[in-house]
Design goal:
Strand content: 25-35%
Order of helices and strands: EHHEEEEEH
Largest sheet: 6 strands, antiparallel
Distance between the termini: 29 Å
CATH class of the largest domain: Mainly Beta
Number of helices: 3
Number of domains: 2
Strand order of the largest sheet: 1-2-3-4-5-6
CATH topology of the largest domain: PH-domain like
Helix content: 25-40%
Number of strands: 6
CATH architecture of the largest domain: Roll
């Protein structure tokens, strides 16, 4: 079985990602405020709830800022995926498909290089409209079989 041919595809922002996380934060904040008002919670319970809410809010703000790729390119050389973005600097990555909508894809990217800046799992939203002439090749590369990766010990 042959691997898919090399392809380079631009990665744009996932516009709905930050909006969805903001909507979720507002919804949870409203539910927490309603619960505190309706239950006539004591001052200590309100203080603990406020602390938990602030921790969750700051965690969401940190996650939101680093989770969604802003721009860059995904490149398939026939054997390995590479990501060229401010957070990934031309190092091999493991790409896995999270959601396939036909004309769009949500993929997760995991760095195969040393742990450091940009390490961890990130997500990228890819749309056919960004590069219609390369979409078929990109889909073939996403679904192609990878050769077994041999790690040196």
């Amino acid at each position: 079985m042959h691997n898919a041919p090399p392809v380079v595809f631009p990665v744009g922002r996932f516009v709905w990602g930050p909006r969805l996380s903001t909507a979720l934060a507002v919804l949870v904040s409203g539910a927490l405020a309603s619960w505190l008002v309706w239950t006539d919670a004591s001052a200590s319970i309100c203080a603990w709830a406020l602390c938990a809410w602030l921790v969750a809010l700051s965690g969401t703000a940190w996650w939101r800022a680093r989770e969604f790729l802003q721009q860059g390119e995904l490149a398939w050389d026939g054997e390995v995926w590479y990501c060229d973005s401010p957070l990934h600097t031309e190092e091999p990555i493991h790409l896995s498909l999270t959601l396939d909508g036909g004309h769009f894809m949500l993929v997760s990217l995991c760095s195969l290089g040393p742990v450091g800046r940009g390490a961890g799992v990130r997500h990228a939203y890819l749309c056919r409209a960004d590069m219609p002439s390369r979409w078929h090749g990109f889909r073939c590369a996403v679904y192609s079989r990878r050769k077994a990766v041999v790690h040196a010990t």
